[in-house]
Specification:
The structure is a single chain. By secondary structure, the protein is mainly beta. About 15% of the residues lie in helices and about 60% in strands. The chain has a single domain, classed as Calycin beta-barrel core domain (Lipocalin, Beta Barrel). A 10-stranded antiparallel barrel has the order 1-2-3-4-5-6-7-8-9-10.
Length: about 180
C-alpha cells in the first residue's frame, strides 16, 4: 500500500470519530431564561401521575405504562416512590433518593441504577443521566439513559429519555407528568 493510499484509508477510518467528536449535546444552561423555572423538589413533592412509552430504535412502541409517583422532601433529599403499571398488566416499583448538591446540581440513587445518577437544572429544564441495569429475557444489561425534562406550566412536565449502549441508540422513553393539585 502506498503512502497516499494509507492516508486515504486513515482519513476514511478517522472521519467518523471526528464527526462524533464534533457532535456536542445541548448544555442545560442554555435554558437558564426559560419559564416557568423548575424547582425539582417542589414539583415532585406530593403526588405526580405520568404516562409514557418505550419505543425501540426503529420507532416502534413496544411498552406503554402509567406511573404514580409519591414524592417526599426532607431537608436536601427528595424521595420518589414510583409505582409502574404496564399495558400488559405487569407492575414494577422504583424508589429514587435524590440529593440537592447546590442550586443547580443533583445526585440520585435507585435500586436498579448502577452507581449514581447526576442531574443539572436551569430555567425550566433538567438533564438527568444515569446507567440502569435492565433485565431483558432473563439477562441484565447496563444501559445509559440521557433524560431531558421540561416544565411546561405548574402541573405539566414533558420528558424524553434516550437509551444507549456503547454509544449506540437503543430507543427512547417518552413521558408526560401531571402534578396533582
Amino acid at each position: 500500500m502506498t503512502t497516499p493510499q494509507r492516508r486515504t484509508l486513515a482519513s476514511l477510518l478517522l472521519a467518523p470519530l471526528f464527526w462524533l467528536a464534533g457532535c456536542s449535546s445541548v448544555e442545560p444552561s442554555r435554558y437558564v431564561n426559560e419559564k416557568p423555572t423548575l424547582d425539582l423538589f417542589a414539583y415532585f413533592s406530593g403526588t405526580v401521575d405520568a404516562w409514557g412509552y418505550f419505543s425501540n430504535r426503529s420507532g416502534e412502541v413496544v411498552k406503554r405504562f402509567k406511573v404514580v409517583i409519591q414524592g417526599t422532601v426532607q431537608n436536601d433529599t427528595l424521595t420518589l416512590d414510583e409505582d409502574f403499571s404496564y399495558a400488559d398488566g405487569s407492575k414494577s416499583r422504583r424508589v429514587w433518593t435524590i440529593r440537592r448538591l447546590d442550586a443547580n446540581r443533583y445526585s440520585g440513587r435507585a435500586g436498579d441504577v448502577v452507581g449514581e445518577a447526576t442531574g443539572v437544572t436551569y430555567g425550566n429544564a433538567l438533564r438527568w443521566t444515569y446507567v440502569m441495569a435492565l433485565e431483558v429475557d432473563g439477562k441484565t444489561y447496563n444501559v445509559d439513559f440521557d433524560d431531558w425534562m421540561y416544565l411546561q406550566d405548574d402541573s405539566v412536565m414533558l420528558n424524553k429519555s434516550v437509551m444507549s449502549k456503547f454509544g449506540l441508540r437503543l430507543g427512547e422513553v417518552i413521558l408526560s407528568f401531571r402534578k396533582r393539585s
